[in-house]
Design a protein that fits this description.
The protein is of the alpha/beta class. 47% of the residues lie in helices and 9% in strands. The chain has twelve helices and seven strands. Strands 2-1-3-4-5 form a five-stranded parallel beta sheet, sandwiched between helices. Strands 6-7 form a two-stranded antiparallel ribbon. A hairpin with a 2-residue loop joins strand 6 and strand 7. The termini are far apart.
Length: 318
């Protein structure tokens, strides 16, 4: 059946007049290893799912070059005063919302840096919004409202053909934004229409068509990998320590002390004192302890170095 065709009402449970699309993506094919899933023991069901999940990291490893290209585009956009947008529907869109939401508390990134857009709006985080993902005009309108030239737009669509996402990507390209499509369909036709195509080959799902499984896991891994690498390239990590975190609870305040101890080799007492002298600013305390400079000098060096710890330390050492 072709896209947009309507089947007779007596042959489908779809309400009268609604379009029916047969998707040919790999995620819609049957997995031969799980055809008897409903006849298996609980332990065997779990084993089949777990063995299928093992394929995901290798599939992500195969697209690291494409992820790296996306990281470079994002870093260039953010350094140029622009933004990164995620557009998605269903599970894919929810994973984009999750990734964007976690960046501010983890890396103290400005909240406007990463913007997540979900087909159907905020309500779609909790329940399916009818036909929202089929609305290419809605995706285009959402993009037209907020995307600007110089931004990076990442489309999230397990099948690689979600109309809402493709509409957003097309409108974003027209506005001069760079575009990326992340999907679980290496054969997606839309690959030719974006600057970077990330087609993760996760294959058929254990439950046919349930892209919340391997396809969703792959998208979560790619998004975590991508956004973390962006934060590293932007200097929000020192060594492998998160130095731009927001200490919003007792555990995170304790982590700030642990980071100073790990990064400097100083005692907990010295680290606490340095953090207090820096008015709770972790980067200033870190630069002060590592360089031996007073807190005011460390703060000034960071200001002259665009808040980059490595650059501030080189400045103080010169």
């Amino acid at each position: 059946m072709t896209a947009g065709a309507v089947e007779p009402d007596e042959q489908t449970s779809v309400p009268r007049g609604r379009p029916v699309v047969r998707v040919g993506a790999p995620t819609e094919r049957r997995n031969p290893l799980s055809v008897d899933l409903d006849l298996m023991s609980t332990r065997d069901v779990l084993t089949v799912i777990n063995e299928a999940d093992r394929r995901v990291p290798a599939a992500v490893a195969a697209v690291l070059d494409e992820i790296a290209a996306t990281v470079d585009l994002a870093v260039a956009a953010l350094r140029g005063g622009h933004r990164v947008h995620y557009f998605g529907a269903g599970t894919s869109g929810r994973l984009g919302v999750l990734d964007a939401a976690e960046l501010a508390p983890t890396f103290n990134s400005p909240r406007h840096w990463f913007c997540a857009h979900l087909a159907g709006g905020p309500d779609a985080m909790w329940r399916a919004v009818e036909d929202a993902e089929d609305d290419d005009r809605g995706g285009a309108a959402d993009a037209a409202d907020c995307v600007h030239a110089g931004d990076l737009v990442v489309g999230l669509a397990a099948s690689g053909r979600t109309p809402y996402v493709l509409g957003a990507l097309a409108a974003s390209r027209a506005k001069g934004a760079s575009t990326v499509l992340l999907c679980a369909n290496p054969e997606a036709e839309a690959a030719r229409s974006v600057d970077v195509f990330i087609g993760v080959d996760t294959g058929p799902e254990v439950v046919t068509g349930s892209t919340r499984m391997k396809a969703g896991t792959a998208q979560k891994l790619v998004l975590n990998t991508f956004s973390t690498a962006v934060m590293v390239r932007l200097g929000r990590v020192y060594s492998n320590l998160m130095i731009d975190m927001v200490a919003t609870n007792a555990k995170l305040r304790g982590r700030m002390i642990s980071i100073l101890v790990e990064a400097t080799g100083c005692s907990e007492e010295v680290s606490r004192r340095a953090l207090a002298e820096a008015d709770g600013d972790l980067k200033t305390a870190l630069v002060s302890l590592v360089s031996g400079a007073a807190v005011p000098a460390a703060r000034a060096a960071l200001a002259r170095s665009a808040d980059q710890v490595r650059d501030a330390l080189e400045l103080l050492a010169s």
